[in-house]
Each structure stands twice: as structure tokens, then as C-alpha cells.
Input
Amino acid sequence: MRWLSKLTAAAIGAGAVAGSIAAATPSAAAPQSAKAATSTVRCTSHHQELANKLSSDISKALESRKSLASLSFYDRPTGTKCTSDASKKYDAASTAKTIILGALLYQNDGTLTGTEDALARKMIIDSDNDSATTLWKQLSDLKDPAKPKPVRIQEFLDKAGMKETVLDQEGTWGLTQITAGDQAKLLRIFSGDDDSVLGGKSRAYALDLMHQVQSSQRWGATAGAPLDSVIHVKNGWMQRSQNPDVEPFDRGDWKVNSMAALTGNGYDSGLAVLTENNRVPKGHPANEGWGEGIETIEAVSRAIYRDVYPDADGYHPSRPNLLNTKSAAAG
Output
């Protein structure tokens, strides 16, 4: 059953949810923190029972997690929106690549050169960091080549109304500060029909690349998504170093983010979940923090899709090899 109408809802409801990542070098596991406080989950919908259920189930999915998490979800057909701490800023890691892609398409009106197309494909489908760095520099002021200032990316953010996003001014794109609210706004732009920021050609291109993301990187905000939907995803992850110039809270912490849009067959939704404080007990492999972040995101994702699409068979994404330190370092 999908939530098709107010009448249906009432009947059911008893009469009535960079440059390369310089700071992402693997390090010793940090001490495990106490259970994180969960911010209030707020949901609205054309169907009040659905909004109430989402608020409750998302809260339950987060209450046992140690991760700090923020989220923003929308479903256009049901008029549903859910947020929790959606304006809190997080290190972007490779979710910044969706912003770079949007800026590239915006600045070129959707017409890319062969080289730009190849770089964009590697950046999104394979999460290639070198490709992201090349495009970041292309969209930057290079008066100081060591610190490319992303002026043309900022132009895109301004046009898109992504006012909470703060680009790293020294060229370390993975340390760009993003919010769940702004990333969900970007998903709305990619999946919508409004030409005011990106034209139809650009939007289709962005969604196509996110649909082709390699199987080992399709975890996160896709978990539980209806199997008959078309899934578009981009994830980001990195472990901050133990260097003295890193803020004490961030030292050794895993930053794990995921954003996904569902289209096709009447689906039209987007979910962005950002996490930090993904720590592991002393003596455990540090990469367990990566897994902690993934589990937090997928707990939220499954709760949302189970409530909004209760009759759908859910997608079970494969997990990355958490023992592969090379792939775990940053993405």
C-alpha cells in the first residue's frame, strides 16, 4: 500500500518523516563516546498518521546509535518532509562531489567537453578523488594555485539557494561544510522539473551518473528503497587524522554521509543523512567506525522507506569491505 490519499490514510489510521582529503589519513581508534543525544525528528505530510509514524520510527532508529546524525527527507507524492538537525554542518567528504557536479553543469549549461564528461563520470561513479580535484580547480580562482578558491562553485550554491554550505577556501573539497538540508535541496534540484537552476539535460545527466554508482558504494540512504524504484546515490566517508591542527572532537573520528533520490514508477523522494562521532572501542580496528556510520544511516533509511512504502520489497545494498584500509581511507 502506498499513501495515496487522505481518505486512504484516514481509513487506516483508526479513523483518521578534496584537493584530496588531506585530513583523512587512517589513525588509531579514538575512545568510544557515550550514546549520542538524538535531536528531535520533525515530520509533516498530507497524511498526519504517516507523519506521526515517521517521527516515531526515525527516532527509534536513532536512539540506540552512538553516531551523531542529521537528516532531511522529502517525498513529493505524499507531501511528506522529515528533518532532524538538518542545519548542522558536517565535513562533506565525497558528498561534495555532487556539488562539484552541479556547479560544472550549471557553468556549462549542461554541455560538457569529452574531458569534462570523463572526469565527471569517474568522480561520481567511481568516487575518484583526483577527478574531483581537477574539476574543483577548473571551477576555482587560481591566483594562488596552492589554495584554489572555488568561486564558480559558490555561484552555483548561490543560485541553488544552498545558503548553509560552506566551501573550503583552501581547496580541500572534502572539508567543505555541508548540511542535510542543503544536500536534500540539491537532490530536489536534480530530480525536479524546475529549469531555474539546471536545465532538463543537466538534471538527467546528474541523475544518470548517480544511478550508475558502482555496487560497492550503493549502501546508506538506499537501504530498504523499493526494488521497483530507480535509485540514484552518492556517499562520502573519511577518517579525520590525529594531527594537532585537527579539533579535539574530530581527531580519529569517522565522517560518514549518504544521499539518495528515488525516481521512476511514480517514486519521487530524496534522503540525505550525515553522521559523525562514529568511534570504536580502544583496541578495535579503526574501520569499525566506518561501519558504525553506515549502520546508523541504513537504520534511518529502512525506517523511512518501510513507513512510506509499506508494501514494497526493499533493496538490500552490499556493504564495503571494511578491512580494506585503502578503500576506507577516504571516499
User: Anything to note?
Assistant: The domain at 17-328 is CATH 3.40.710.10 (Beta-lactamase). The longest strand covers residues 230-239.
